[in-house]
Write a sequence for this structure.
């Protein structure tokens, strides 16, 4: 059973005993990175970093997680800032969540756990269900009671048990972690975060021996940001990273508790009344990993930025029309965040910045106007 | 300008002069594989095989093509046959087409071509449009005149010029190749096939120094199958492959001209009257690369199999519900094909078989029934 530790108070524990620290903060899985070197083996995707993971590579869909492309995208440069994209849509269920699900499922399998669960009605639910079934585990997905069936269709393809939960969905996150019959792999639980950190290992290895100047990502629960921060510390301990890239959290303006806390110079993120946003998959008004996310932004000299929906939609369009990347709205928040950070001179000309596109946009059904004209085959050559 | 050659009559030509041979058959790009070794460099995705490609790695979305996971999937074993999946859905636009588009676009850019085009209303259109815009090229997509707007929405996200063509859409394929104002990168044109072959390089490298016993893939125009066959020959010339994996083509029973020709022991594929199928993206009644596909099946000791829609839907469900892979119907045709080939004893127990999942299923909008029950938060622990 992996040993876990609190980033804040330093207490250690066994994962079997607790998923959050007695002080209330999230825990992460301890590793031993001193002797870590960039791997040369043939493990696929994120599993090349098995030395920094609490489990061995699984078979099945979990083995297909990570290893996503990091590409230089000159057409998407912002001012003089050099744009790089990390396309997490190229995961088995189309989002970054597969990294954490794969670790959670592989660990459950190792320990003889037969049922895993998650509190989500979006990417995490799909990803957990897919990874569970690929490993032969049962999966329970808890969703809000009032969610329409069509929002659940993507999840149902993988045939998990879906439970509509009546009551305070916000409180469910915590309640679920106390349930013993099912192991919940929620957004900032230690095993999920152990998987999510691999995105930073991939980014840093691709740049090594150099380092990108900054990484911009959409932030919801704060789990991925916490994982990335952990990875940076591991690489520094291993002697593979001298300077940290600055980490920037992008949130939708309608629901931006982490940005507010950062700007107000608070140590803790307070729950807010979140509003509606097109980036609904990152609209977390009370992020369980919010304080750790704040600490990560400050430790790396980064920052936080809010993005109104109009800028998000414009960024989504630019990514597709000029970059060839079709992403979900929450990913576009990160790119729009980059544009604003450059405007605000927080990111400067000549810097190399990685924007994490957390999920592809093919699951979003919103149609767009099609502008096509009709020509006859015989006219085609002359029309062209 | 790359030099091209006919697999059948052996004639060479310059790509600028012709995309098909004077004998009528498709051409492929010549390479010099004698000294090729498995690469050790850091080029991303399919670009690790630049030594066997007519272009250098591009920047932008084209650099994100290929490098897809190949995973062992024990839960999807068929009888005693060991299942491996190659998940081509993990490409930038969600399908295998990105490999060929990336090469076509990179080559066009090299040669100062400013407009490229394609004849497609599906994955190839999306992929060509995305890759073109990512490189700053204009793109023309030719679709049938009577296609409904909603079928074009996925393409329109990338904002290419869409032309509805009145007249014989079948004939358009050939007409388009004669147009000088726009360079068409159709399904079995030499540059596209050069990109498509990289999937076989990845499969063979993952297994090396061993070899999979067979590869099963869905076949439409025959372009990808031709490319895979080319790659196998290149690897043999390089001394990296002793025995060929057997290649198997899977087609929808409603539109299976290549299967019919194979079973009738014909040297040429004849156009048929194709019917409707859920696997509409591979329903090509008159495949331009059909004869070359046939030659590939025979040269490798493989075969061909037709799949009725019911088996396709069942395979699609099994891939998602037991494997965690959500694929489009045409990809499920390949897995259903594997099941039938095992039933027919053409693939035997103990063999290791790679099924190529050519595209993910997130673009398909068909909803499915959602089976969810409602419980209150307080009951949750006891229900679980």
């Amino acid at each position: 059973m992996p040993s876990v530790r609190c980033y804040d108070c330093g207490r250690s524990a066994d994962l079997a005993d607790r998923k959050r620290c007695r002080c209330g903060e999230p825990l992460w899985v301890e590793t031993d990175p001193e002797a870590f070197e960039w791997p040369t083996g043939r493990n696929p995707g994120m599993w090349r970093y098995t030395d920094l993971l609490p489990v061995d590579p699984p078979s099945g869909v979990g083995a297909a997680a990570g290893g996503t492309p990091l590409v230089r995208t000159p057409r998407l440069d912002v001012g003089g800032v050099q744009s790089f994209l990390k396309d997490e849509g190229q995961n088995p269920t189309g989002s970054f969540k597969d990294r954490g699900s794969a670790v959670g499922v592989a660990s459950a399998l190792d320990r003889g756990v037969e049922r895993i669960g998650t509190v989500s009605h979006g990417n995490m639910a799909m990803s957990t269900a897919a990874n569970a079934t690929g490993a032969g585990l049962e999966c329970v997905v808890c969703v809000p009671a009032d969610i329409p069936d069509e929002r659940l269709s993507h999840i149902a393809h993988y045939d998990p048990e879906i439970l509509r939960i009546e009551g305070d969905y916000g409180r469910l996150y915590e309640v679920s972690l106390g349930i013993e019959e099912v192991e919940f792999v929620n957004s900032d639980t230690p095993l999920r975060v152990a998987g999510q950190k691999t995105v930073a290992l991939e980014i840093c290895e691709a740049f090594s021996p150099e380092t990108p100047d900054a990484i911009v990502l959409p932030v919801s629960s704060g789990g991925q940001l916490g994982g990335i921060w952990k990875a940076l510390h591991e690489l520094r301990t291993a002697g593979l990273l001298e300077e940290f890239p600055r980490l920037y959290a992008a949130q939708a303006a309608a629901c931006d508790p982490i940005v507010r806390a950062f700007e107000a110079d608070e140590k803790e993120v307070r729950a807010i009344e979140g509003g509606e946003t097109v980036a609904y998959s990152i609209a977390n008004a009370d992020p369980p990993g919010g304080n750790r996310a704040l600490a990560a932004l400050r430790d790396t000299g980064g920052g936080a930025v809010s993005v109104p929906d109009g800028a998000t939609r414009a960024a989504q369009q630019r990514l597709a029309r000029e970059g060839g990347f079709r992403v979900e709205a929450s990913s576009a928040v990160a790119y729009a965040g980059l544009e604003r950070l450059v405007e605000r001179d927080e990111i400067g000309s000549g810097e190399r910045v990685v924007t994490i596109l957390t999920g592809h946009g093919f699951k979003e059904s919103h149609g767009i106007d099609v502008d096509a004209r009709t020509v006859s085959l015989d006219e085609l050559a002359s029309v062209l």
Remarks:
- The longest strand of chain A covers residues 138-144.
- Chain A has three domains: 3-54, 63-95+192-357, 97-189.
- Residues 3-54 of chain A form one domain.
